[in-house]
Amino acid sequence: MKKWLVGFLILLITIIIVSVIFLLGNFKERYPASPLIKPFFEKPLDKYTIENLRKRGGIPSEITFSGNKFYYSSDGKKISGIINGATQSATVKPAILLLHGSADEGEYFPGFGTQKVAEVLAKNGYVTFAPDFLGYGESDPDGHRDDFENRFLTYTTNMDLIASICHAELVSASLANASVNSNKLRDPDLRQDDSCKLMLWGHSNGGQIALTILTILPAGRQVPTVLWNPVTKSFPYNILYYTDGYKDEGLWLRKATADFEKDYDVNKYSFDKYLDSIKAPIFIQQGEADEWVPVRWNRDFNFKFQILNFKLVYKEYVGADHNMVPKWNEAVKDTLNFFNNEK
What we know:
- This protein is an alpha/beta fold and 343 residues long.
- The protein has ten helices and nine strands.
- Helix content is 39%, strand content 14%.
- It starts with a helix and ends with a helix.
């Protein structure tokens, strides 16, 4: 009798569990945004898909200045950076956000990979912001043990910087012009404000970050962008390619990637699956002798992207390496000319 009862209870509990899962799944299809459903189906990194980052947008905070340094906050964390070409009191149009490539903490310094370009742009009337990503410079530590979340945070922190710069420009404009709509200053969602004429420049992995930001911004948003030797391969191949340079030859990262792919659809995190939303003018500058970003990557990317974005311009520099040496002067002159034509 007891065995029969135990068997019956086990069967009953199984039926109840299966029924609950079925009903929740059905409810999820009808009401995907319901707070009753999210705790059962949402995973920690779901919030970093391209679609969910579009919903989040950029969250502005006050930008403060100290000498040539600037500070702002993103999700409660302090971010530092170097500014060139502006006073401490206000940002001045046009502003260019400079995104550096990958760097070991031991070799990094504020302005790493961006300072020489920033100086040229500043001399020609631009304001440049070069942020220190979380864990670098005076920025707070990333605070996450998950390597993928640390990578995804480069999108949210830089989206928040864009929103902060645009908000600062609105404040400056309102002080100078009483006709500016003051209601905009109280609106935290500035994603649709196309009056903010921000531009982007990215090098190497910073190019990948810039492209991802362009897919997160509203479709059609005009953000002229220059990319030096950008990493344009799909995620997560674009990080696994570099594992031979790790001390463990990529053993840990390959395992972490396999674990990530068990729980998440990697296509939802890869900018190249959303290229049709990018309508901004883009200039890709590729060193023909680059050993870090193979020239074939951006030849292929140029061929694929030209079909979707007629505003894409692609140029190779014969003999130039990952840092555009020895064609750096030519490359930065072309960068300046592109921004001058687009501002």
